[in-house]
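Q: Hi! Curious about what Aminotransferase class I/II-fold pyridoxal phosphate-dependent enzyme looks like structurally. Here's the sequence.
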Amino acid sequence: MKPSVVAIKQQEIFKFNAKAKSIPGVVNMTVGEPNFPTPEHIKKAAKDAIDDNETHYTVPEGIHELLHAVADYLHDKYDLNYDPETQIIASAGVTEGVFSAFNAILQDGDEVLIPSPSFTIYGPDADFNGAAPVYIDTSETDFKVTPEALKEAFRTNPRIKIFLLNFPSNPTGVSYTEDELRALADVLKQHDVFVISDEIYSELTYNFKHVSFGKILPEQTILLNGLSKSHAMTGWRFGIICGPAAVISQINKIHELATTSISSITQYAALEAYTNGYDDPISMRDQYKARRDVLHKGLNELGFDCPDPDGAFYLFAKIPDEYEQDDVKFANDLLEKEHLAILPGSFFGVGGKGHLRFSYAASMDNINTCVSKLGDFLKKPQKVANIEE
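A: Let's find out. The predicted structure is below.
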């Protein structure tokens, strides 16, 4: 058995979610997917594709009319200019995008620079490819990587081949302004490094307009995006990989080996989303924002400190100092005693200790119940631990 596979551990978030689902009546605030249905016109397009017998292999990179629709969408939304014939691949979600890009680029001994806390697949994907993940702890800089930290990382880690940037971020919900992105680009352009920019939450932004890193530094950026979060299509498994033609052609080789091509039905659904679904995210985004505000206010009133999220649908809250700071124990106690499921921040790596990740991709009733249950939990003396006399 390949040692790099044996070394991969099952993701803690999956084990915790399985435990939560086994408890009747649990209020689950862990789920990282929209609780909205896929828009009807997209479902109809998929059904029509089946009826029209569009049920065969496609070319590996995706049907050409879809790739053209993706290029038009990215241009209209983010002022990006990708050639649909040479610079875009339709992938099985961003997860496959990360996997295929890492496989195409990394060699044994390379390093992957990852701001942390971060989504849980990036480090294991680096390990699998013989590369070392290098984490930048962002917990002291409002969960954003700074140009100074980036410079220091390159100074001390000379084998960095990929800088992985995810914004808006899972798990923190923070994002970057255009000025902040340009400051990072000024550092990155001095190095022979690819930027893999995971922007799957780009349509779910609240505080300022999303600017893609593909616009800021196109010659070094591999952009990952898709429809899972924007159009409530997680189960369809649709993503896009965009970037310079020379590297996209190499990534496509790995994509071919992994998938042959993604589902034709998913591709026709995506074609409809990119053609006639420009405004689909708006109503969902408005509801997420209302939920965010209720949850943020409730957590603040309970003494939790958390940034006001710029996007996505997560709050990353610091447990009040007077309570148990072992976030894994805190979350498990909360699940056992209150039947409330919230993910420990430590699951998301360096900088996550003492935090909890709340997903507000949940009903308003569940959000209010969450705040109430958390308040009850904090009032019980037996839950208090590690308080200095």
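A: A fun detail: Residues 3-38+280-383 form a domain with the Aspartate Aminotransferase, domain 1 fold (CATH 3.90.1150.10).
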